[in-house]
Amino acid sequence: MKEPESLQQAVLYFAEMDNCIAYLSARRWPDGKVICPNCGSESVSAFNSKRKTWKCAVHHPKREFSVKVGTLFEESPIGLDKWLTATWMLTNCKNGISSYELSRALKVSQKAAWFMLHRIRMALHDETFGTKLGGPESEVESDETFVGGLGKNMHKDRKIKLQAIRGEQRRGDIALGKTAVHGILDRDLRKIRCTVVPNVRRETLQNVILKQVRYGTKVYTDSSPAYELLHNRYIHEFVNHAERYVNGRVHTNGLENFWSLLKRSLRGTYVAVEPFHLDRYLDEQVFRYNNRATKDNPLNDADRFDLVIRNIVGKRLTFAELTGKPN
Ligand SMILES: [Zn+2]
Questions:
Q1: How far is the CA of 134 from the CAs of 36, 90, 194, 251, 293, in angstroms?
Q2: Which CATH number fits domain 139-290: 3.40.50.150, 3.90.550.10, 3.30.420.10, 3.30.1240.10?
Q3: pLDDT tens digit string along 135-153?
Q4: pTM score, two decimals?
Q5: What's the gap in Å between 104 CA and the centre of ligand 1?
Protein backbone atom coordinates (compact mmCIF):
# COMPACT_ATOMS: atom_id res chain seq x y z
CA MET A 1 0.00 0.00 0.00
CA LYS A 2 1.26 3.47 -0.96
CA GLU A 3 2.11 5.89 1.85
CA PRO A 4 -0.80 8.25 2.55
CA GLU A 5 -1.20 11.73 1.05
CA SER A 6 -4.49 12.80 2.67
CA LEU A 7 -6.26 12.38 5.99
CA GLN A 8 -8.63 9.84 4.47
CA GLN A 9 -5.74 7.77 3.11
CA ALA A 10 -3.91 8.10 6.42
CA VAL A 11 -6.87 6.66 8.36
CA LEU A 12 -7.06 3.68 5.99
CA TYR A 13 -3.31 3.13 5.82
CA PHE A 14 -2.63 3.31 9.55
CA ALA A 15 -5.57 1.02 10.35
CA GLU A 16 -3.10 -1.76 9.46
CA MET A 17 -0.58 -2.31 12.25
CA ASP A 18 2.04 -3.52 9.75
CA ASN A 19 1.77 -0.25 7.84
CA CYS A 20 2.29 1.75 11.06
CA ILE A 21 5.40 -0.26 11.84
CA ALA A 22 6.74 0.02 8.29
CA TYR A 23 6.20 3.79 8.20
CA LEU A 24 7.83 4.41 11.58
CA SER A 25 10.73 1.98 11.07
CA ALA A 26 11.65 3.53 7.74
CA ARG A 27 12.08 6.88 9.48
CA ARG A 28 13.64 5.62 12.64
CA TRP A 29 16.18 3.34 11.00
CA PRO A 30 16.60 4.83 7.50
CA ASP A 31 19.38 2.39 6.56
CA GLY A 32 17.23 -0.55 7.61
CA LYS A 33 19.48 -1.48 10.52
CA VAL A 34 17.31 -1.89 13.64
CA ILE A 35 19.05 -0.76 16.83
CA CYS A 36 18.07 -1.83 20.36
CA PRO A 37 16.60 1.28 22.03
CA ASN A 38 17.73 0.08 25.44
CA CYS A 39 21.44 -0.64 24.88
CA GLY A 40 22.20 0.56 21.34
CA SER A 41 23.27 -2.87 20.12
CA GLU A 42 22.93 -3.66 16.44
CA SER A 43 22.62 -7.39 17.13
CA VAL A 44 18.89 -7.58 16.90
CA SER A 45 16.79 -10.56 15.84
CA ALA A 46 14.63 -10.48 12.73
CA PHE A 47 11.20 -8.90 13.19
CA ASN A 48 8.74 -11.26 14.87
CA SER A 49 5.64 -10.64 12.77
CA LYS A 50 3.36 -12.37 15.24
CA ARG A 51 4.46 -10.41 18.33
CA LYS A 52 5.30 -7.27 16.30
CA THR A 53 8.61 -6.94 18.11
CA TRP A 54 12.35 -7.32 17.75
CA LYS A 55 14.64 -8.93 20.29
CA CYS A 56 18.07 -7.70 21.37
CA ALA A 57 20.86 -10.27 21.42
CA VAL A 58 22.43 -8.67 24.49
CA HIS A 59 21.07 -9.89 27.82
CA HIS A 60 19.29 -7.13 29.72
CA PRO A 61 15.77 -6.38 30.92
CA LYS A 62 13.26 -5.37 28.24
CA ARG A 63 15.19 -7.14 25.52
CA GLU A 64 12.09 -7.44 23.43
CA PHE A 65 10.95 -4.12 22.02
CA SER A 66 8.31 -2.71 19.71
CA VAL A 67 8.69 0.23 17.35
CA LYS A 68 7.14 2.48 20.05
CA VAL A 69 9.93 1.96 22.59
CA GLY A 70 12.15 5.01 22.93
CA THR A 71 9.75 7.32 21.09
CA LEU A 72 7.11 9.82 22.18
CA PHE A 73 4.55 7.01 21.85
CA GLU A 74 6.28 4.76 24.37
CA GLU A 75 4.32 3.38 27.31
CA SER A 76 1.03 4.54 25.93
CA PRO A 77 -1.80 1.99 25.76
CA ILE A 78 -3.27 3.92 22.82
CA GLY A 79 -2.78 2.16 19.49
CA LEU A 80 -0.49 3.44 16.76
CA ASP A 81 -3.47 3.78 14.41
CA LYS A 82 -4.88 6.49 16.70
CA TRP A 83 -1.53 8.10 17.46
CA LEU A 84 -0.66 8.46 13.79
CA THR A 85 -4.09 9.72 12.78
CA ALA A 86 -3.96 12.28 15.60
CA THR A 87 -0.51 13.38 14.45
CA TRP A 88 -1.75 13.80 10.90
CA MET A 89 -4.66 15.93 12.09
CA LEU A 90 -2.68 18.17 14.42
CA THR A 91 0.07 18.68 11.86
CA ASN A 92 -2.22 19.59 9.00
CA CYS A 93 -5.35 21.27 10.43
CA LYS A 94 -4.77 24.93 9.82
CA ASN A 95 -6.20 26.15 13.11
CA GLY A 96 -5.18 23.18 15.21
CA ILE A 97 -7.51 20.70 16.81
CA SER A 98 -9.02 20.65 20.30
CA SER A 99 -8.94 17.67 22.62
CA TYR A 100 -12.75 17.53 22.36
CA GLU A 101 -12.66 17.25 18.58
CA LEU A 102 -9.91 14.65 18.71
CA SER A 103 -11.74 12.68 21.40
CA ARG A 104 -14.82 12.41 19.18
CA ALA A 105 -12.84 11.65 16.03
CA LEU A 106 -10.82 8.82 17.57
CA LYS A 107 -13.23 7.57 20.23
CA VAL A 108 -10.82 8.12 23.10
CA SER A 109 -11.54 10.05 26.29
CA GLN A 110 -11.03 13.80 26.25
CA LYS A 111 -8.26 13.37 28.83
CA ALA A 112 -6.45 10.88 26.61
CA ALA A 113 -6.89 13.19 23.63
CA TRP A 114 -5.43 16.11 25.58
CA PHE A 115 -2.44 13.99 26.54
CA MET A 116 -1.90 12.85 22.96
CA LEU A 117 -2.01 16.38 21.55
CA HIS A 118 0.39 17.54 24.20
CA ARG A 119 2.87 14.81 23.39
CA ILE A 120 2.69 15.34 19.67
CA ARG A 121 3.38 19.04 20.17
CA MET A 122 6.75 18.07 21.67
CA ALA A 123 7.75 17.00 18.18
CA LEU A 124 6.74 20.36 16.70
CA HIS A 125 9.40 22.27 18.63
CA ASP A 126 11.80 24.14 16.35
CA GLU A 127 15.11 22.32 16.63
CA THR A 128 17.06 25.23 15.18
CA PHE A 129 16.29 27.35 18.24
CA GLY A 130 19.93 27.61 19.29
CA THR A 131 21.12 29.08 15.98
CA LYS A 132 20.97 32.77 15.12
CA LEU A 133 18.75 34.44 12.54
CA GLY A 134 19.50 37.32 10.20
CA GLY A 135 22.95 38.54 9.19
CA PRO A 136 24.30 41.56 7.30
CA GLU A 137 21.98 42.47 4.40
CA SER A 138 19.14 40.42 5.94
CA GLU A 139 15.99 41.87 7.38
CA VAL A 140 14.15 40.69 10.47
CA GLU A 141 10.99 41.96 12.10
CA SER A 142 10.69 42.08 15.87
CA ASP A 143 7.41 42.57 17.70
CA GLU A 144 5.58 41.47 20.80
CA THR A 145 2.00 40.76 21.72
CA PHE A 146 -0.14 39.71 24.67
CA VAL A 147 -2.25 36.59 24.78
CA GLY A 148 -4.61 34.94 27.22
CA GLY A 149 -6.34 36.57 30.15
CA LEU A 150 -9.22 38.65 28.89
CA GLY A 151 -8.89 36.99 25.50
CA LYS A 152 -12.40 37.91 24.40
CA ASN A 153 -11.56 41.55 24.11
CA MET A 154 -9.28 42.28 21.15
CA HIS A 155 -9.19 45.99 21.78
CA LYS A 156 -7.70 45.41 25.22
CA ASP A 157 -4.58 43.85 23.65
CA ARG A 158 -4.12 46.87 21.46
CA LYS A 159 -4.60 49.17 24.43
CA ILE A 160 -2.13 47.34 26.64
CA LYS A 161 0.42 47.41 23.89
CA LEU A 162 -0.07 51.11 23.26
CA GLN A 163 0.27 51.78 26.98
CA ALA A 164 3.44 49.73 27.07
CA ILE A 165 4.80 51.63 24.08
CA ARG A 166 4.00 54.98 25.63
CA GLY A 167 5.55 53.80 28.87
CA GLU A 168 2.28 54.30 30.73
CA GLN A 169 2.34 50.83 32.09
CA ARG A 170 4.98 50.78 34.72
CA ARG A 171 8.16 49.21 33.33
CA GLY A 172 6.25 47.06 30.89
CA ASP A 173 4.69 44.83 33.53
CA ILE A 174 1.77 42.88 32.29
CA ALA A 175 -1.65 43.39 33.75
CA LEU A 176 -4.90 41.47 33.41
CA GLY A 177 -3.44 37.97 33.51
CA LYS A 178 -1.97 38.23 30.04
CA THR A 179 1.19 36.56 28.86
CA ALA A 180 3.68 38.46 26.74
CA VAL A 181 5.08 36.79 23.65
CA HIS A 182 7.98 38.09 21.59
CA GLY A 183 8.42 37.14 17.95
CA ILE A 184 11.16 37.45 15.35
CA LEU A 185 10.51 36.96 11.64
CA ASP A 186 13.48 36.34 9.38
CA ARG A 187 12.30 37.63 6.01
CA ASP A 188 14.89 35.71 3.98
CA LEU A 189 14.26 32.38 5.65
CA ARG A 190 10.56 33.20 6.04
CA LYS A 191 10.76 31.67 9.48
CA ILE A 192 9.33 32.84 12.75
CA ARG A 193 10.60 32.29 16.26
CA CYS A 194 8.51 32.94 19.33
CA THR A 195 9.43 33.21 22.97
CA VAL A 196 7.25 33.66 26.03
CA VAL A 197 8.73 36.63 27.91
CA PRO A 198 8.09 37.67 31.52
CA ASN A 199 7.54 41.33 30.53
CA VAL A 200 8.23 43.73 27.69
CA ARG A 201 10.93 45.77 29.39
CA ARG A 202 13.94 46.92 27.44
CA GLU A 203 16.47 44.46 28.99
CA THR A 204 14.11 41.56 28.39
CA LEU A 205 13.37 42.20 24.73
CA GLN A 206 16.89 43.33 23.96
CA ASN A 207 18.32 40.11 25.39
CA VAL A 208 15.95 37.99 23.32
CA ILE A 209 17.09 39.79 20.17
CA LEU A 210 20.79 39.69 21.06
CA LYS A 211 20.51 35.96 21.65
CA GLN A 212 18.62 35.21 18.44
CA VAL A 213 19.77 37.69 15.81
CA ARG A 214 23.25 38.18 14.30
CA TYR A 215 24.84 41.59 14.79
CA GLY A 216 24.52 43.90 11.81
CA THR A 217 21.09 42.65 10.75
CA LYS A 218 18.42 45.16 9.74
CA VAL A 219 15.86 45.00 12.54
CA TYR A 220 12.41 46.52 12.01
CA THR A 221 10.17 47.26 14.98
CA ASP A 222 7.47 49.62 16.15
CA SER A 223 8.41 52.70 18.16
CA SER A 224 8.39 50.97 21.56
CA PRO A 225 11.08 52.44 23.84
CA ALA A 226 12.08 48.86 24.57
CA TYR A 227 13.95 48.87 21.26
CA GLU A 228 15.77 52.16 21.77
CA LEU A 229 19.27 50.77 22.12
CA LEU A 230 19.19 48.28 19.27
CA HIS A 231 21.18 50.64 17.04
CA ASN A 232 24.31 49.70 19.02
CA ARG A 233 24.40 46.29 17.38
CA TYR A 234 21.93 46.45 14.53
CA ILE A 235 20.64 48.63 11.75
CA HIS A 236 17.46 49.50 13.57
CA GLU A 237 14.52 51.17 11.86
CA PHE A 238 11.03 51.55 13.22
CA VAL A 239 7.55 52.76 12.35
CA ASN A 240 5.50 54.81 14.75
CA HIS A 241 2.15 53.05 14.69
CA ALA A 242 0.39 56.20 15.86
CA GLU A 243 1.27 57.68 12.46
CA ARG A 244 1.48 54.76 10.04
CA TYR A 245 2.10 51.06 9.80
CA VAL A 246 4.35 50.77 6.78
CA ASN A 247 7.28 52.84 5.60
CA GLY A 248 8.67 51.09 2.53
CA ARG A 249 10.31 47.91 3.76
CA VAL A 250 10.17 49.06 7.35
CA HIS A 251 7.16 47.40 8.98
CA THR A 252 6.19 44.48 11.21
CA ASN A 253 3.25 43.25 9.12
CA GLY A 254 4.63 39.72 8.81
CA LEU A 255 4.50 39.29 12.56
CA GLU A 256 1.17 41.13 12.88
CA ASN A 257 -0.31 38.54 10.51
CA PHE A 258 1.15 35.73 12.56
CA TRP A 259 -0.26 37.21 15.78
CA SER A 260 -3.73 37.25 14.32
CA LEU A 261 -3.42 33.61 13.21
CA LEU A 262 -2.16 32.68 16.67
CA LYS A 263 -4.98 34.50 18.44
CA ARG A 264 -7.64 33.09 16.16
CA SER A 265 -6.41 29.61 16.93
CA LEU A 266 -6.13 30.25 20.66
CA ARG A 267 -9.63 31.71 20.80
CA GLY A 268 -11.37 29.32 18.46
CA THR A 269 -9.77 25.96 19.09
CA TYR A 270 -8.07 26.17 22.43
CA VAL A 271 -10.49 27.77 24.81
CA ALA A 272 -8.32 27.83 27.91
CA VAL A 273 -4.54 27.67 27.72
CA GLU A 274 -2.60 27.80 30.95
CA PRO A 275 0.37 30.14 30.65
CA PHE A 276 2.68 27.22 31.37
CA HIS A 277 1.45 25.38 28.28
CA LEU A 278 1.61 28.41 26.02
CA ASP A 279 5.11 27.48 24.85
CA ARG A 280 3.74 24.28 23.36
CA TYR A 281 0.92 26.06 21.53
CA LEU A 282 3.44 28.54 20.19
CA ASP A 283 5.58 25.66 18.95
CA GLU A 284 2.53 24.32 17.17
CA GLN A 285 1.60 27.59 15.48
CA VAL A 286 5.20 28.37 14.59
CA PHE A 287 5.62 24.89 13.10
CA ARG A 288 2.56 25.38 10.92
CA TYR A 289 3.74 28.81 9.80
CA ASN A 290 7.35 27.81 9.15
CA ASN A 291 6.31 24.69 7.26
CA ARG A 292 3.50 26.14 5.20
CA ALA A 293 3.60 25.66 1.44
CA THR A 294 5.34 28.49 -0.38
CA LYS A 295 6.47 28.95 -3.96
CA ASP A 296 10.08 28.02 -3.16
CA ASN A 297 9.13 25.27 -0.76
CA PRO A 298 5.97 23.46 -1.86
CA LEU A 299 5.46 21.27 1.21
CA ASN A 300 2.31 19.18 1.29
CA ASP A 301 0.44 17.40 4.10
CA ALA A 302 2.42 14.19 3.66
CA ASP A 303 5.74 16.11 3.87
CA ARG A 304 4.72 17.88 7.07
CA PHE A 305 3.59 14.62 8.62
CA ASP A 306 6.86 12.93 7.64
CA LEU A 307 8.81 15.76 9.26
CA VAL A 308 6.94 15.42 12.54
CA ILE A 309 7.19 11.64 12.62
CA ARG A 310 10.97 11.91 12.24
CA ASN A 311 10.98 14.07 15.37
CA ILE A 312 8.64 11.74 17.22
CA VAL A 313 10.69 8.63 16.71
CA GLY A 314 13.77 10.48 17.87
CA LYS A 315 12.26 11.80 21.08
CA ARG A 316 11.65 10.39 24.47
CA LEU A 317 9.74 12.42 26.96
CA THR A 318 10.10 12.56 30.71
CA PHE A 319 7.28 13.32 33.09
CA ALA A 320 9.09 16.48 34.17
CA GLU A 321 9.37 17.73 30.59
CA LEU A 322 5.70 17.15 30.04
CA THR A 323 4.39 18.79 33.19
CA GLY A 324 7.22 21.05 34.27
CA LYS A 325 7.19 19.33 37.64
CA PRO A 326 9.92 17.12 39.05
CA ASN A 327 9.16 13.43 38.77
ZN1 LIG B 1 19.80 -4.24 23.88
A1: 40, 30, 15, 16, 22
A2: 3.30.420.10
A3: 989 999 999 998 876 544 5
A4: 0.83
A5: 39
